[in-house]
Amino acid sequence: MDDVAIYLEKFKRKKQKNTYLLKVGKNKKLSNFLTKVLVSVIFFLVSLIYIRNDASNAVIYKKYVFSETLPFTKIKQAYENLFGEAVPVANKEKTVFGGSLVYKNIEPYQDGEKLTVSANSLVSNLTGGIIVYIGEKEGYGNTVIIQGNDGADIWYGNLQNVNVKLYDYVEKDTTIGETMDDTLYLVIKKNDTYLKYEDYKN
Length: 202
Known about the structure:
There is one protein chain. By secondary structure, this protein is of the alpha+beta class. It is built from four helices and eleven strands; from the N terminus they run αααβββββββββββα. The longest helix is centred in the first third of the chain and has 52 residues, at 2-53.
């Protein structure tokens, strides 16, 4: 009889602990959501005040907000310096290429280069950064653009089975997708200059 009472008491304590952990987890999710909403509202209000303050501000705002790529990685680094890690990384992807792409041939193509690779090759990113674009680009097919921590925008074209989402932060060597066939289009742009892959990796 005592064993039954002890077992019931342990079960009751375990249930209370699980209930507490569940509440804490829900509170953290709610807190993260509310933080994102609050930051969005603040950005919207500051933008609205700036635009309404002067007519010339609207032109400047349109020029830099709608036509320029925001420096997401610099904003992220500044945020982390002030407040710590913005989004905890739950699980790290396994490395595939160790910071370099494996290819059979490379040749110039439009603003970048065309790499001949094995059919349906896995493609990992060359540097840590933020996904700023996923979609079709004329001449490149389905394309993922990553704004790297070093300020370079890197395009990976002709991809399928893309397993990253817009505005994800990805570590270096994260698998972002695979090539549609044996072709990978690569464009590397830094400080308004297009770089060759060999020059960039060195």
